[in-house]
Predict the structure.
Amino acid sequence: MHTIDPWYYAHAGLTGVAIFTLFGVWIASFCAVRRRSDPARLAFSLLEVPLVIYALRLILIAVSDALAVRSLNLVYDADNEDEYLARAEDNFRLTLNIKTVAILFAAISNMVLLFALVELGNGLIFALERQRTRSQKNIRCLALLFGITILALGLAIFGMMQKVWPQAWDIATIELFDSISADLRTINRMTVAYAILDWITYVAVLIYASVVMNLYRNIKASRGCAIIYLTAAIIGVIRCTWILAHSIQTVYWPLEHPSTDAVLMLSIFLDIWMYSAIFGLLFVARMKKQGGLWTTEQPWMNVSTKPTSSDEEK
């Protein structure tokens, strides 16, 4: 058995923990009270979509880990070289197909989660102003534009990978390297562009969350939801920073790539678990607001009434 096998087992196991956590949050979220007058009902309704899609992506990642272990041990299971090559090719193609579908699921999840985060900020501001401002509408349009761009780029990467990867196995036997090398460079550039765009959007969400936090800093009753929103945005930026750094390093300095076991473990904590933590935090915010703190109209949630120190203690 290869020494790298335990790291794939650990990666698959920790991914499984995230999968069960996400499905637990998804099931529990249906128990949350829904109010027709909820100013953030769109955000929490949208949240159901990326949560399930991302959980499905994690299932595919766990399956790809199992296939990676299987590929490492095929040499011990095959009776001859021809059987080994046939099994290795099937395993190779299946693994790449699974990974490309996982990338597609990630793009869809990112798009919807981005829009849900922006709508949560809009809901918190609407709870104070009791009306939709022009700036909120503009921010919603920008979030939709960036989300669609992220999805389009993810679809483009998925399409390019589906075109290139089926030929990758034949490079060793056919002179195909020159013909697909240009496509591989394009995929690398698109991957970095995707990571940059994702990072920019989460930085923008962090700025918006900071503005919301500033508006709620003197409102003790609902300040907790604003803090959760800000924390989720910070975690999103940290996660995107890791993905961007890893993408740039992989594309432009491939020879200095860290060990596989280090990448596997870092991806669990800095990517998968942090992304899952965002869903968990938003679920907590959803439950905290059920007491009517910002779901139901309060005396201080009025355009003509500004929050005062006496209001925040009520």
